[in-house]
Amino acid sequence: MSHAGRPLRQGGFTLMEMLVTLVIVALATGLVGQALFQATRLEQRMAHASTAGAQQTLQRVWLRRLLEGVLPKSRLSPDRLLGERDRVQGTSTTVPAFPDDTAQRFMLRLTRDDGATQLRLRRGADDEGREELLLTWRGERGAFHYMDAQGQWHDRWPPPSGKVPALPTAIALETGLQPVPVLVAGVLAQGEPPVLRRELEQL
Fold it and tell me: Percent of the chain at pLDDT above 90?
């Protein structure tokens, strides 16, 4: 039988087959690239969350040590512990950035802005010193509380009524942080500071 009238098909792909193949390869490459991009972003978010969690844990440790190290001072001293719901100031042996454990003045202050609460730390005796951000959380929840020797909590220290020691037995910070929204620090130093001459003259 003769095949002279039929065109012979040469080996290889037609133009249509090549176009279909290129479209399939492009779609597969796009899907793989998008999946890799999302995996990379997820990995970066997890790494950032892990770093932020570790930093927050370290800052909680600093805060607890700072409050545990407060010292009793005379009631006439500007370095004595004074506490309210939104701030506490005094003198501590464990203020961050003072690794030699010398007693330094500090002030912790809660501020609220744009639906978030921030805990700021001021170091040293300069009342106009720069404040540093120590902790932050969403919402407006946040307050300091002070426990006396009888186990009663107060919103101010010293409390407005009654004779109390120079220091509370514990200081608590109520936060919006999870999983532990309340940080409690037991004050290590107890007892009364030495009486100053000015206090004796006022008796």
Answer: 37
Q: Which phi and psi angles does 136 have, rounded to 5°?
A: -145, 145
Burial (CB count within 10 angstroms: exposed 0-12, middle 13-18, buried 19+), residue 38? exposed
Answer whether residue 156 shows pLDDT above 50: yes
In terms of Cα–Cα distance, which of 88, 87, 143, 155 is closest to 79? 88
**Domain layout of the chain by residue ranges:** 61-202
User: Considering the entire predicted model, what is its pTM?
Assistant: 0.69
**What is the DSSP pairing of strand 116-123 with strand 143-147?**
unpaired
Q: Burial level of 95, CB count in 10 A (0-12/13-18/19+)?
A: buried
Q: In the sheet that 170-174 helps form, which strands lie side by side, from edge to edge?
A: 153-154, 143-147, 170-174, 182-186
Per-residue buried b or exposed e for 48-79, using 16+ beta carbons within 10 Å of the residue's own CB: eeeeeeeeeeebbebbbbbbbbbbbbbeebeb
Neighbours of 123 (CB within 10 A): 19
The span from the CA of 2 to the CA of 132, in Å, is: 95
